[in-house]
Amino acid sequence: MIMICAFSQNITSVEFKGLKRTRSSFLERILKAQVNAAADSSIIALDVERLNRLPGIAKATVSQTKKNNGDINVTYTIDENFTIIPGLRVSTAANGDFAFRISLFEFNALGANHLIGGYYQNEVFSSYGAFIESRYLFSNKAGLGVNFQNNNTFEPIYFDNQTETNYRYLNQLFESYLMYEFDFRNRAELGFSIASDDYTYEDGELNTSIPSELDADRINFRTQYEYINLDIDYQYVSGWRSQTDIQVLTGGNQILADNLIINNDLEYLTRVGTKGNWASRLRLGYASNNDSPFAPFIVDNQVNIRGGGNVVARGTATATINTEYRHTLYEKGWFVLQGNSFLDLNTQRQVNERFDSSFNSDNIRVSPGLGVRFIHKRIFNAVFRLDYGIGIGADASNGLVFGIGQYF
To answer: Hey, what CATH topology would domain 84-404 get?
Structure first.
């Protein structure tokens, strides 16, 4: 008789070094490798990735110490982020006025990576919003988010896809949503919002078939699915990410009708040598209401085409490709200077048009360009971005675009 006995190594302790603001009890709750569980190197490796995704952590590494009896002590060394982040965005409004947006967000509230914050925006009219989100409020899988937004903006509307008429758009919205993490790479959101949409004519040529004032009281439903397989090492990111967002807008009227809006972002990033990072994004969007000139998809500097202008076109379906190469030019301590070259392409299905209208040369926009990034490695999302896009084509425009965070 042959007897085979297998002895598993157990985790006897989990320790954290380097914590300042983040609570160790929070990290212990979300990690999968628990005390007294079998030591599985693949689970521990995934936990390191999980820590590196948290806004409060800039870099996490792990070491394992084996005891005489074969059991394991696991120690995570944490380099924390500063997470109280002010924001400033300065731009030109659609009517040519100076516009700005200021914000303040805390991404590691109470040491448990709760998000709390808000913004104020002046883009011809004043807007504001407040947000609270806790991804792991109920467990290491389930959380909750709520927000209120009062957005009051100056919106160009294009009748017959050409005639520009300007409306004041007031959107007031309260949203609540549940978040659930199926496993390390797959998570989803499900929520609803109560909203009101109001359009008031400001100036330009008014279409006689459209009233000068429109409004709709809505109850909207939203679901989101996200697949994440990213390896994050400070400013370098590699892997895949896909996010699909579906909204059902109800309570509309004849012009501001009910709508189904679907968006998908597919991102691929890879390391190039020791200092390079190539990043690409495919963004697709579809809206079921193809009749209303108040279409949801726009061409804009901050959304899809750098240098393209501010809300220069609207559509009911859209496709965008953004690709860029990022290269670290200088790095010392917490500071990184990064240069990048990019190419942005976009096309849209215009209102009351078929999908093949997206291939018309008038609807295709191409914008290559160059940019620079100033990065603080230990402040969450502390990337100051400057890009200059050069439009290609007869009616194309050039422009400087800046903001906080990578473009995508």
So the answer is: Porin (2.40.160)
Helix H segments across 5-80? 24-30, 41-53
Contact 166/157 with Cβ under 8 angstroms?
yes
Predicted TM-score (pTM) of the model is 0.88
Q: From start to end of 206-333, where are the E strands?
A: 213-233, 236-249, 259-272, 276-287, 297-299, 313-315, 317-332
CB 259 within 8 A of CB 286: no
User: Where do the domains of the chain lie?
Assistant: 11-80, 84-404
Task: Sort strands 11-17 and 72-80 into parallel, antiparallel or unpaired.
Answer: parallel
Please give the torsion angle defined by the CA atoms of residues 79, 113, 406 and 53, in that order, rounded to the nearest 10 degrees.
Answer: 60
Closest alpha carbon to 369 in 331, 336, 322: 322
Q: Mind listing the pLDDT tens digit for each residue in 125-182?
A: 999 999 999 999 999 999 999 999 999 999 999 887 778 899 999 999 999 999 999 9
Q: Which residue has the tokens 């689970």?
A: 43
Annotation: CATH topology of 11-80: Ubiquitin-like (UB roll) (3.10.20)
391 Cβ contact list (under 8 Å, min separation 6): 305, 307, 308, 365, 366, 367, 397, 398
Amino acid at 182: F
